[in-house]
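Lecture notes, structural biology module. Today: joint structure prediction for complexes of two components.
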Amino acid sequence: MRIVPMALAASVLLASAMLSAAPPSAPDDTAWRTLEDLTTEVGPRLAGSDREAAARDWAVVRLKALGFSNPRIEPFTIRGYVRGAEAARLTAPFPQNLAVTALGYSAPTPAGGIEGELVYFPTLDALRAAPDGSLKGKIAFIDHAMKANQDGSGYGPFGNVRRVGPRIAAQKGAIAAVIRSAGTDMHRNPHTGGTGWGDVTPIPAGAVSLPDAEQVARIAAKGKPMRLALTLTGQTKDNLPSGNVLAELPGRDPKLPPILLACHLDSWDPGTGAIDDAAGCAIITAAALRAQAGGKPLRTIRVLWAGSEEIGVFGGADYGKVHAAEPHALAMESDFGADRVYGLRTSFAEVNKPLHARIVAALAPLGIVEQGGEVEGGADIGAIRKAQKLPVIDLMQDGTRYFDLHHTPDDTLDKVDPAQLEQNVAAWTAVLRIVANEAGPLNGAN
Amino acid sequence: MRIVPMALAASVLLASAMLSAAPPSAPDDTAWRTLEDLTTEVGPRLAGSDREAAARDWAVVRLKALGFSNPRIEPFTIRGYVRGAEAARLTAPFPQNLAVTALGYSAPTPAGGIEGELVYFPTLDALRAAPDGSLKGKIAFIDHAMKANQDGSGYGPFGNVRRVGPRIAAQKGAIAAVIRSAGTDMHRNPHTGGTGWGDVTPIPAGAVSLPDAEQVARIAAKGKPMRLALTLTGQTKDNLPSGNVLAELPGRDPKLPPILLACHLDSWDPGTGAIDDAAGCAIITAAALRAQAGGKPLRTIRVLWAGSEEIGVFGGADYGKVHAAEPHALAMESDFGADRVYGLRTSFAEVNKPLHARIVAALAPLGIVEQGGEVEGGADIGAIRKAQKLPVIDLMQDGTRYFDLHHTPDDTLDKVDPAQLEQNVAAWTAVLRIVANEAGPLNGAN
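The predicted structure, tokenised, for the full assembly:
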């Protein structure tokens, strides 16, 4: 029965949805197509790289083709990280290679690498307890016990091993630091990610995969001195080009402040950034379009495909600065993969409680349940939200698998479940149909 | 209640099992300990490498400590493969890196790599159909559709893409060949393995991971010319040192031919060879020991931890040659991971049908079912089996996960399920209790 080619059939579906004849939630393949094409035609798009620039150009063309108004690039520059050669070898007591990747803003080793005694710390606190100067000339290994949680809550405390572990090691005299990846999978694919130095002089800093970390822990338990040879030649560079991509679907009342939907366009470079965060861009874009079916909403919907989120939320900061004087109605962000939305939280002020209740009711048919806890918003909408006290809505995605893939070579298209991706689009569309048709006021509680 | 440390408790259990007071199937941790220590203290042990040599020394010490008689090395030399630098980058139409590994016996590229048009073949047959000379100056990409099967039956036909694909590409003028890994997982860990050239001049030959292969297929479908930059500097080397490790548990009647149990000690180098094949050595060794509980069996049990299986079954061939004149009773091999035994087949001659029936009955309590099809035996017992028409027994392991891990960096200890490993030991022990106590004759049907 499949006579019409898939892409054509889908575009007919999409066209019919946009021309309002279709029922409100007729699925289309805009999200999948956006995700597939961005990860295939651009691939990895490291902040500040020529591939991130290619992604911006790709995004402008794609958003225009999808019917968005005025797709445009807002450029800025960043301090970025340019990856180099990466290798780690345990040279004693049991010689073997470890799967390693550099952390963003790692200091470079010489091309030939460095070698030193490897000192095992089972936790970040154990490292903190090491006497000052005790790591002089040595390499610190920092282990931890991160496990998968639906809400991703392990990334806060255990992600700190990556965020501050190398700095603490440097403060105690270490010549390099290697951490157990902030991840939850058992594959030999280390998780990269940024680290921070404050006013401490950076040292080479890398992460090994979880099987490698377990191997190091087993070897450490045998009690013989360990030595590591480490090569991480990547470098921090200033003034690298980056930028945001913005576009709108104008509402019926152009005087009303827009709804801002954000994702990030850059990705870490080992994978193609399918779940982090091409999926987010695909979801918000497809939902913005699908929310047009049945008639243009009252408010303009703006999409922000932010640049250089990974290395330090540069895109969100630039957006907050450039658009500070421009009123916004509400902001939402999709940046937690492509698995299903299971929960929601909003930060509406008391006056908008009825609106909150309508959103909760609209999402219930998708199995989405109101959750407690503080509303997070998202990294790239953080600056504008704070400046304008915007209300935000968290559509909380199932993060059980997220840290299996996050910042690894395994973040590729095949990891996305089309049915769960579609559920995200349906959830976002349901929310947009409400908030983009609300004349206001829309007020944030904090 | 855990007052005795685990290792001590286990060694007490083991001692009691060996001293015959324990019930016949009392579990012990010999298999796990062997597996863990070999993969941790030696790690990767490529055929012909100094790490394979370290593994032989380790094996002699360990087998002696476990109570085996006369653990010894039988040396030989091999044509091996020494891994070098490995990188692949699609330079057009959408620049991005691919996760690649060299195949054993690949020709080296120059240090700076080679670059050429990449021609996509969806199947090995499509490559075969390409006109002679049509690949002159180009790089062949060979895709295929291997899927996971319980019995591993996909590895025959789809493994051929690796075994003969590069040679066919070379015959048609290709300057290099890259295949979709012969595997079933969706991780960015390519599967290595040997390839063969016959009298064709070798070309550089590599494998990319399955997500990368799908990416290449998607890009190929867009119809724009593809170009690949490929660096694989590893080299084939002659006269590399290797060897087998042998040891015995003598039977009550030293005049009866021994039962031969084989595994292989070498591993491909990206992982630590936990499932391929430290698990096999762990299983046969633990079962040989456990079969001693309750009294020494009639026949001697010999373990063969073969060298250099991966690159060309050199250990099995050497064993067949060195021990050609020495009678054997029966041979068995464990080389298909550590997941549970689900089936059995034997190649006993008609005269041994009652013995076959006893083995089937002894394995039924473990959920093991007699299977149809031809008995395989195993690579390392192949030469001696053929020379002496030995009966063999296949204890067929669940291979559903095997080709997710096979020949990849992901072949590490954490992938082994201790409960399934123990089920293997129990199955092997049950068989050994029968065959090692059978006075004979033991005759093979083929």
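Point to remember: The interface with chain B takes residues 36, 40-44, 51, 94-97, 99, 186-189, 210-211, 214-215, 218-219, 222, 270-272, 408-410, 412-415 of chain A (CB under 8 Å).
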